[in-house]
Amino acid sequence: MGGRRALLSLAAAAALVPVGLSVLLAALATRPRLAAKAFGGRANPSRHPSDFGLSSTDVEYSPGCSGWWVPTPEAVGSVVIVHGFEASEDPRATDTAPRIELAALICEAGYNCLIISLGYSGGTRLHSGGALEAADIAAAVQWAATECDAPVAVVGFSAGGHAAVAATNQTQVFAVVTDSSFVDFREVVIQQGVSVLSIPSWFLTPVPAFMRLATGHAPVDLASWPIDRNTPMLHIHGDADRAINFSNLKRLAAITGGQTLAVHGAGHIGSFAVNRQLYSETVLTFLHRSGQRD
Question: What's the pTM value of the predicted model, to 2 decimals?
Answer without folding.
Answer: 0.91
